[in-house]
Design a protein that fits this description.
The complex is a heterodimer. Chain A is 31% helix and 22% strand. By secondary structure, chain A is of the alpha/beta class. The chains are: A alpha/beta, B alpha/beta.
Chain lengths: 285, 523
């Protein structure tokens, strides 16, 4: 039987999930807890508590029974995309998700050909589903499409050679370099992230490295500098793009939405710092 | 004295009033007043041999009008669109203008600017400024790089401030050139509406690197637009131009005239699809074609243009390269109205809509096939350039249009959620229109960091047989109205009652109010 995963959203033409025009697929569920997460509703899987059902103004949510258990059902046609369900969810989940097989996802992707150059799978954390990714990417390759993964790097790519074979590259969110900083940002340990960065870099699979710049939360300059030093060698082997993303409060959980937004000028300073180390393709967002 | 049909004193008096109002208008510049008054004078003439039944279709308010002649006047004294062979002009100079062939970039640009002043059109300004990269590339290295860039920038600025109508078009591509790169650089800084600019794109010849520069420029100033080179070449040959809005025409020729069918209003006359397809549409097509024949005959046989104008004498245009544009608007309304009249609905009872339902697309194609077939059977003796037939044209609408969607576009506000669905619908229609059609997509500001996004869409769309695409950044000052460009800042000035330099800004304001062009779906 084909593996099904919970898909939060498919964006047919995305301009922000890798180079060119790509279909971006967002899977539900994440394994770390970034304070500045701007789509916290993708973090966990719905526990069917039903709190959202009564709040839905469009009556697009209802209770159903599946295998003897109560579940929350989402009617796409009635949904008005007002996001009320997401706002009232105490559990960082969303009822607006669909179980899909790789073939079902691919059916949505194929419709976008010939205007897309590839697909990007993001999350949540999509590498929680390596078999699904491998199957999906195999299908995408049959249609001549590029395949990128957007990952936090908690799971070691070297453990999934079949996936790496059909994956063109990884957009790796390094977040913070210093383990203590990283823990403060995510509640997790970054040993695997840095190990992944080097391993992917050596194998020419590092498409992009990304930092969300939140000066209130950690020493961003020190982090960017140290990451720059750390990655210099692999950059020389296979160059990659670096994205410096300014923290923005949009979509962020209320308790974490008070951080100051760094200026574009500050981002420019960080870019210059990296450019001084020899990095070339640096994008500020 | 030449014979002319008499008109009533009432009409003369009305026109006199309008002329006085024009003279006193605070919203028109001097040039705009002169142009309007010329139109008023011309409107008093009655010299064309008009087909019977025309009046009832032509002289009606916009909710009933079926044929529209787009302000060409009652006695056309020159072709509507003229596309001189500027390459020949630069090679041979001009006896009439007392110009020698240029030896360097200074002289080449100066000669072009002089000639532009002498190229007539329906707007009184040149609608075609030449294939600028091919024209200037031989001269670009006659000065150092900084000087060349400065000269190109001044040239473009001169065009914007003296060609006071943005239905004025320059072409570049498909091969990358230094000149084109300088043009992109200058236009990104100038953010001017004139000239309109098309890049002829040919996969394999137009490089990605060059396209990145072009797209970057388009996101700054809404130009260039992108033309499917292979498609135009197949229909019009290598010597084709994009002029005015997006009109594919023959170099050294142009279009005598452009009239348009207002399909939605023709559909209102019909009892149902069969009556529309068998009776109403063929009837109106026939009258419009014969009206165009009469206009062309007057231009060629009576006006004296082709005997007297120096552009003809010096071989920069040749009557044999002219054709005419058989235009149409409002396919969307026609389809919606006809499906409604037939009582055809979706399973859930809601109305079928053009752009969303397969059945609507099918009916649209059926209607286009009838118009195309009509045109293939109608001949005009002066359209040898296009095998005796007119060229179909998806007209972009005019400022006063209300509930009339340009050409075969999907109405603003009804664009499908997914861009791919919009492109698929459009791909059924672009191939009918060698003399132009196009669609416009505002894109989100974040695309500035990923211009390849736009490149992928262009490549994909052209593989899907689309003809012509325009993009602009949702926050840019220069925006594409329907086919031409205006500056948002100028729209605001005019809206407050101040006269502004380009006459097309007024058209843009009308289109913003009546055509909702500021409300397009951002991609």
């Amino acid at each position: 039987m084909e593996q099904k995963v919970l898909v939060n959203k498919i964006i047919p033409f995305s301009s922000v999930d890798g180079p060119g025009c790509r279909t971006a697929i967002f899977l539900q569920g994440c394994n770390i807890d970034c304070r500045y997460c701007h789509n916290p509703e993708t973090r966990k899987v719905c526990i069917n508590c039903g709190l959202c059902v009564e709040k839905c103004p469009a009556h697009a949510l209802s209770f159903a029974e599946r295998e003897g258990a109560r579940t929350v059902d989402w009617n796409q046609d009635l949904c008005c995309q007002c996001d009320t369900c997401i706002h009232v969810c105490p559990h960082d989940a969303s009822p607006r998700v669909q179980w899909m097989t790789p073939e079902e996802v691919m059916e949505k992707v194929r419709k976008q050909i010939p205007c897309i150059r590839g697909i990007s799978v993001s999350g949540g954390e999509c590498t929680l589903h390596p078999e699904f990714l491998t199957a999906l990417f195999r299908l995408a390759k049959q249609d001549g499409l590029g395949t990128l993964i957007d990952s936090n790097g908690m799971i070691l790519f070297e453990d999934f050679p079949a996936l790496c074979e059909v994956c063109d590259g990884v957009m790796l969110d390094i977040k913070a370099f210093d383990p203590e900083d990283y823990h403060r940002v995510t509640g997790a340990d970054n040993t695997n992230v840095l190990r992944n960065a080097l391993w992917l870099g050596h194998h020419g699979k590092l498409e992009e490295v990304r930092f969300v710049i939140v000066p209130d939360l950690y020493d961003t300059e020190r982090s960017v500098r140290a990451s720059g030093e750390f990655l210099r060698e692999v950059y020389a082997e296979h160059p990659f793009r670096i994205k410096l993303i300014a923290y923005r409060p949009m979509g962020v959980r209320e308790q974490y939405s008070h951080y100051e937004v760094p200026s574009q000028a500050y981002l420019g300073q960080l870019r210059d710092l990296l450019a001084g180390m020899g990095y070339q393709d640096i994008v500020l967002i | 004295m030449k014979e002319m049909r008499p008109i009533s004193m009432e009409r003369v008096e009305k026109t006199r009033q309008e002329i006085l109002e024009t003279i006193e208008s605070p919203e028109l510049t001097h040039e705009q007043k002169v142009a309007v008054m010329a139109q008023k004078a011309d409107s008093l003439l009655e010299v064309l041999d008009l087909p019977e039944g025309l009046d009832e279709l032509l002289n009606q308010p916009i909710d009933r009008q079926c044929i529209c002649d787009l302000f060409e006047g009652h006695a056309p004294m020159r072709p509507r669109y003229i596309c001189p062979d500027y390459e020949k002009f630069l090679k041979q100079g001009s006896e009439y203008l007392r110009l020698d062939p240029p030896k360097d970039l200074y002289e080449a640009l100066n000669n072009l600017l002089i000639l532009y002043k002498h190229v007539p059109s329906v707007t009184n300004y040149p609608v075609y400024l030449g294939q600028l990269d091919d024209l200037l590339e031989p001269y670009i290295d006659t000065v150092d790089e900084a000087t060349a860039k400065k000269l190109i920038k001044l040239f473009l600025k001169q065009c914007d401030r003296t060609i006071l109508d943005s239905f004025s078009h320059a072409d570049i591509g498909p091969k990358p050139t230094k000149t084109a790169l300088y043009i992109f650089e200058a236009e990104s800084e100038l953010e001017d509406a004139v000239p309109n600019l098309s890049l002829k794109y040919q996969e394999g010849v137009t490089t990605d690197e060059y396209m990145m520069k072009a797209i970057d420029c388009a996101l700054h100033c809404a130009k260039p637009s992108f033309a499917n080179h292979n498609m135009f070449v197949k229909e019009l040959g290598e010597r084709y131009v994009i002029a005015s809005c997006y009109n594919g025409l023959k170099l050294g020729g142009g279009s005598y005239t452009l009239c348009r069918l207002i399909l939605g209003n023709i559909a209102k006359r019909a009892s149902g699809i069969e009556d529309f397809e068998k009776n109403q549409l063929p009837y109106v097509c026939d009258i419009m074609a014969r009206y165009m024949d009469a206009r062309i005959r007057f231009e060629v046989e009576e006006s004296g243009f082709f005997e007297q104008n120096f552009l003809v004498r010096e071989g920069l245009i040749d009557r044999k390269n002219f054709s005419a544009m058989f235009g149409l608007v409002g396919l969307a309304e026609a389809v919606d109205i006809l499906l409604e009249k037939e009582g055809r609905r979706r399973p859930d009872g809601s109305a079928l809509r053009f752009g969303h339902d397969e059945e609507a697309t099918k009916l649209g194609v059926e209607i286009m096939n009838i118009i195309d077939d009509f045109n293939q059977h109608h001949t005009n003796p002066y359209c040898e350039a296009t095998d005796g037939h007119f060229l179909l044209h998806a007209q972009v609408g005019i400022a006063s249009d209300v509930n009339v969607t340009p050409g075969t576009r999907i109405p603003i506000g009804e664009e499908p959620e997914e861009l791919i669905d919009q492109l698929r619908v459009l791909s059924n229609f672009h191939h009918y229109f060698p003399s132009g059609t196009g669609d416009i997509f505002p894109v989100d500001i974040t695309v500035h960091r990923n211009p390849e996004y736009v490149l992928d869409i262009i490549k994909g769309a052209f593989r899907m047989n689309l003809r012509y695409l325009s993009f602009y950044s949702s926050n840019s000052d220069v925006i594409r109205v329907t086919g031409y460009l205006v500056k948002r800042s100028e729209l605001e000035k005019l809206n407050k009652g101040t006269a502004v330099i380009h006459d097309t800004t007024a058209l843009g304001l009308g289109a913003a109010k009546n055509g909702h062009i500021l409300e397009r779906k951002v991609r």
